[in-house]
Amino acid sequence: MATSPLQALQRLLAAATIVAGCSSAYASDSPDSISWHNPMKAGYPTVQNRAWADDTTYHRLPTQATRLLTAESRNDAMLPAGLAVGFFTDAEEIKIRINPDGEDPGRLFQVDRNGIWHQCRRIAGTTPPTFAAPVAPIHGFGTEYRYYLPHTQPIDRLEIGTEADAKLKFAAADRSLPIVVYGRNDRTETQQEWISGLQRNIDLPTINLAIADAPLPQSELTALIGSIPSRLYILDFTPTAQT
Fold this sequence. Notes:
Blueprint: H1 5-15, E1 34-37, E2 47-48, H2 71-77, E3 84-89, E4 95-99, E5 107-111, E6 117-119, E7 121-122, E8 131-132, E9 144-148, E10 157-163, E11 168-170, E12 179-183, H3 189-202, E13 206-210, H4 220-226, E14 232-236
Parallel strand pairs: 12-13, 12-14
Antiparallel strand pairs: 1-10, 2-3, 3-9, 3-11, 4-10, 5-6, 5-9, 7-8
């Protein structure tokens, strides 16, 4: 049966759908079609919301400080909750690759021309995780993104994937005086996410040191945290059932 011009056009559009922003799958996922960018190799500190800029891990506390914690607290301190990596890119599509991968792929946000952050939706079934932008991208390096690392799983490697011919520049870590949040948490996404949400709303570094079974004030660890130059400390040792 002959194909009408309208049917031919519909098939062409279905086969050549383009999704802008941090979109779904690439047209080709061959190694040559993707450039992977490692923020730890930028040549300058890139991890946001961390007090110790010279640390080369994705842990909230430096390794030497974990000796001050119980085993449970030590594991929690090694989670990257609250840490973020910002970048500017003209890419039409963005992938996130973390090692080890898991159920929590992290969260990707895009800022619009009015300075409002929009969360990018993860495309179901994509591996590595790929996100869809809720707003049209700003052209060139004016398109700013911020990737928040997983709340509930440790990682040792992060890479941002773009088309091979796209430009990407990591944002330098913001060294403004931060807000420091210290206390106990129940490892729920809700309890961790409010700290990241606070950071986006006030656009200031906000350090998440809410740790399971964190030592009470007057401990050696709180003395270390108290040495962080800060504009504000938020201390919350309320039992998690009451928060």
